[in-house]
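Lecture notes, structural biology module. Today: joint structure prediction for complexes of two components.
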Amino acid sequence: MDVAVRHDGRAAIVQVQGEVDLYSAPKMREALVGLTDGRSPAVLVDLSRVEYMDSSGVATLVEGLQRVRQYGGQFKLAGLAPAIRDVFRFARLEKVFEIYEDTQAALRAVR
Amino acid sequence: MASRVSETFQIEVTSSPRLLQVVRAAVGQYGRLLDLGEGETHRLKTAVDEALTNIIRHSYGGEAGQRIVITFILSGARLEILLRDFGRKPDPARVAPREPDLSRPGGLGLPLIRSVMDEVEFDLSPERGTILRLVKHLGAERGAR
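The predicted structure, tokenised, for the full assembly:
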């Protein structure tokens, strides 16, 4: 799994690629903790290149969301393939996150 | 569909998180062999992956090198998956059906397994460890692409 961070205006875009599980989720967590420690005002996680995500990945995103909420920032997910979206739906977390079709739509929603 | 066991196979892994992707690949290959649709194959992968993750984290407390045996038994349209570990038995309260809880996000795995499998049962009777029995009735999506 690969994680890359780029910036677009006020937003930090976390691009995740590959399979996110118990083994690889810490790498995504490291990127999110770095951004939230720096109080990034808007964190967008681009999941369009994620082929698989389990509850370890979802839990890492829940933690990211909670950390951003603590300082009043914005946390958005983008580009979920149907199978990845299913994981959020089955975990009943689909409505907990702001989920967008792609990063462009998520960027437009940054306030 | 025939009620006899038509085929079975077994995978044994140690409790190494990096082997999760290897097991998922095997489940994906079996899903293709059974001509399951992409969605159903993904859900099977999810169930097995989450079960293994729970065993690694809870039964073995993250300790590497411990045995996990996964047995697949296909009987007609009924697929049974047994996950055998030899570690700490789960707390019955922890494995009882419940809603996902955002305040403890680490507990999402079992609700996920329950949402994608038809039967989920913990057999705590072995002297050491646990057998988790997962059952999926294949059919609705079989052959769908």
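Point to remember: The mean pLDDT of chain A is 95.
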